[in-house]
Design goal:
This protein is α/β, with parallel strands linked by helices. It has 8 helices and 9 strands.
Length: 268
């Protein structure tokens, strides 16, 4: 199939973002460039603008293009952007499609990762990424990376600092409750089982989850069973505050469920 100019541009953008062109060495694990490792995103490159790897960037490109082609409303956001590679690709996809009505939000501390808190989050025990200073990329440097591709403009919004990821103290309290609840996988399984019926066809909206999980009384669940060829394989759901954008979230959950079915059926 003949490649369009858009295809060629985005192919090249991914190759440059991962530095498959000049093949820079890896700083973690320390060593020379290895093609298979960079393809699958299993190293921290010395100079490349992303550690995600080629395959996952290609997947991100496919999903973002589907959002544009199917006219699904909304913007794009990445929380934790490192050098900015994924967001640069998203902005490039918008540019290649002539899309001017969407924004790309890049949210990060831009100061590395915080020290672990095993008391609040037991899974953090023995896992301290705050010691890796190479993960701390200042905001000015990330903006410089965007500018080097000609993609730094008003369609890119930078959200700096963890405190800016939620709008107010009430939201921060709810977010903490949610994260603590989700750390216990069994509770999450019980929650989805309590509210999502395998026989349901439409997306279900549940406001107030205190019946199944009292700690989630201030949250909303929007979800649907995930099917492959008509057989229920799991659940897809979004948890959020009562002021969530219901219309857009319902549309997104429904679309992802259909995409899940389509992709897995194609792979069988």
């Amino acid at each position: 199939m003949q490649r369009t100019p858009r295809d060629l541009y985005l192919d090249l953008l991914i190759q440059v973002l991962t530095n498959m062109i000049y093949k820079d060495n890896s700083m973690y694990p320390l060593g020379r460039f290895r093609r298979e490792v960079r393809l699958t995103g299993q190293d921290w490159p010395m100079f490349a603008h992303t550690m995600v790897g080629v395959r996952r960037l290609e997947n991100l490109r496919e999903l973002a293009q589907a959002v544009i082609d199917e006219n699904i409303p909304g913007d794009f956001i990445e929380t934790g952007v490192w050098r900015g590679g994924c967001c640069i690709l998203l902005r490039g996809i918008l540019a290649a499609n002539g899309s001017t009505d969407r924004k790309v939000y890049a949210a990060d501390s831009f100061a590395g990762l915080p020290p672990p808190d095993p008391l609040a989050y037991p899974a953090d025990a023995g896992f301290d990424l705050s010691q890796y200073k190479q993960l701390a990329v200042p905001l000015d440097k990330v903006k410089e990376n965007f500018a080097s591709y000609g993609l730094l403009d008003e369609q890119v919004v930078f959200v700096e600092g963890a405190s800016n990821l939620v709008a107010n103290e009430q939201d921060r309290s709810r977010l903490q409750e949610l994260l603590q609840a989700l750390e216990q996988k069994q509770r999450l399984v019980e929650l989805l089982g309590a509210y999502l019926d395998a026989k349901q066809e439409a997306v279900r909206v549940v406001i107030g989850l205190d019946e199944a999980q009292p700690s989630m009384r201030n949250l909303v669940l929007i979800g649907t069973p995930a099917r492959v060829g008509g057989e229920v394989m799991g659940s897809l759901a979004v948890l959020g505050p009562p002021r969530i954008d219901y219309q857009h979230t319902i549309t997104a959950v429904s679309y992802i469920a259909r995409l899940f079915d389509k992709i897995l059926n194609e792979n069988e």
